[in-house]
Amino acid sequence: MTTTVNVATPGGHYPIHIGTGRLDHLHESVPADVTAIALVTNPTVGDLYAKRAIAALQKSGKTVITITLPDGETYKDWQTLNLIFDGLLQNRLDRKCLLVALGGGVIGDMVGFAASAYMRGVRFLQVPTTVLSQVDSSVGGKTAINHPLGKNMIGAFYQPIAVEIDIDVLHTLPEREISAGLAEVIKYGLIIDAAFFDWCEANVAALRALDPDAIRYAIQRSCELKAYVVGQDERESGLRAILNFGHTFGHAIEAGMGYGEWLHGEAVGCGMVQAGALSAATTGLDADSVKRIHDLVQAIGCPVVPPNLGTERWVELMQVDKKTEGGHLRFVLLPKIGQAVVQGAPLNVVRDVLHKTAVPVL
Amino acid sequence: MTTTVNVATPGGHYPIHIGTGRLDHLHESVPADVTAIALVTNPTVGDLYAKRAIAALQKSGKTVITITLPDGETYKDWQTLNLIFDGLLQNRLDRKCLLVALGGGVIGDMVGFAASAYMRGVRFLQVPTTVLSQVDSSVGGKTAINHPLGKNMIGAFYQPIAVEIDIDVLHTLPEREISAGLAEVIKYGLIIDAAFFDWCEANVAALRALDPDAIRYAIQRSCELKAYVVGQDERESGLRAILNFGHTFGHAIEAGMGYGEWLHGEAVGCGMVQAGALSAATTGLDADSVKRIHDLVQAIGCPVVPPNLGTERWVELMQVDKKTEGGHLRFVLLPKIGQAVVQGAPLNVVRDVLHKTAVPVL
After folding, report:
1. Secondary structure (3-state) at B345
2. Where do the annotations place Zn(2+) binding (chains A, B) (predicted)?
3. Which fold has domain A217-357?
4. Are A296 and A204 in contact (CB under 8 A)?
5. Smallest CA–CA separation between A310 and chain B, in Å?
């Protein structure tokens, strides 16, 4: 069974196909006027799925070249991005080529940014292979690489021509990756759909076991909710900022620990617990909801105790966040589950929350 | 006297102010909600004009930081681009900052690309200081850096919020730079406005002497003509390609000689002479027009004899051009002066023209 979510933004309209066996149908998303295809992947995903992906893409009748990037968030930098440009230029791919991103969020972000910049813009197809990238980085057109001074600081808003989500491939993921991805799933419930948060609580075991019906629905609903938000606000001037719930804390964890130590979704999961505590102190989130957030993040298998970076280092790291305006710290906060606001928080309250969440007192 | 040309494209509307003393009025182009300003320049231009530019920008009441990049086309690469990101992040400039490009085409291209990619897009103001950048890179939103395998291969279509053209600054340019810039000026006559080409022929001495009325009109008319073409076709899918008249040959000269040996405008000037000869052989351009192109390129002080790269190396270098589709060489050609078409040319005819223009037989 394949479900389709249609994404409409000012920058592009495209379908997300979600189902089993999509990997063998990639040619269905290759436009007729494409001159050549570059499949970009990493050794881990490539060993498992590149052969099938290439066979499917070749059914379009186009030449397919493969570019393999080193695996991991630590390689989400310019040097690695340049390997894509090297491969495209060495093989003389022109501006009517198609890039295909086969991998997780790192591959998707890098291939998307490369597609936006190669010859000032070529088309790309997303084939996300992790829970996180399937629910998150495949919708919204955010592409980027990291800079030593901040995560995702260099990038573009750039939409794929289509997203192909094969839920079968999740079975080869480490359990930790699944937990990290589910953190972003429950985020959608928290910020915009209380009923979906309830559903996640009720189905946490099925989700962790990758039950096909549960996981397809979770991905579909997450994509729908994100598409709704992004459709209202492609350039992140207003509503879209709520998608960063848990991310101000999460980005600080990633930068403070060194990119790659914590998975992005793990950092966001823990960051949501912290943002829940900050919401209690600022927007009046009730204690029961704070506990429900903590418990569900824990139930999906993510860490709930932040690393001890030192309070001042925490604040410094959060100030690099892209939401910061004029040095003023801004957060996505919840008045209640299913409703989010973006606002500043007094520094002493933030410090207090950092202390409180640093040990498991919740 | 200040003239304004308004540019309207799907990606943005902005004014180009052309006149004397504009450098002291930069604050007039700073939006009220800007949080901080980064002036990006090189040591050559910076020594002459940074102080005045900073003083003008500070009249807006904003903090101004300065980022100085090494000077020259050879530095139009990722390493140098990264100096901009380093400076912006070290100074914690947020997504409401304004980048100001004070310099020639290299500075404009790099700052524009940096603005498109920093935090996925911040605003920038163009202050072009060469004839070439005033007539060319300040209109159309093309930004890019070079790759060892090709010029301008990595970039974005990204529009400035305004362009401030101070014609006074041209007086400190080397004569060679003026000649190179005038090559792009006469290009507009050749591809779209025969009367403007006649005017350039009649005013070549005044243009080379930087007569204020002549140079302001030449810049204004070039900007108007380019704005017209770009307004029709922002993403270079059709009409806009005619702006590349002389560029397929020109880019090969620049890549073959090593970036920075020939000035871009010099390579384009010589490339227009070659494209004129190729037009005679393919689109029926008459011999008198071929001679007029040759003579005016020579009269503005640009080289008219291409470097001897070897015919096969020439063809190889031209195949990397972004206009290439499926390995097929495409050129901008003139049926007559003031009218341009984009079409393929048989390889033997191209080889023949390469031989014919390699010695001064015209």
Report:
1. coil
2. 184, 247, 264
3. Dehydroquinate synthase-like, alpha domain (1.20.1090)
4. yes
5. 21
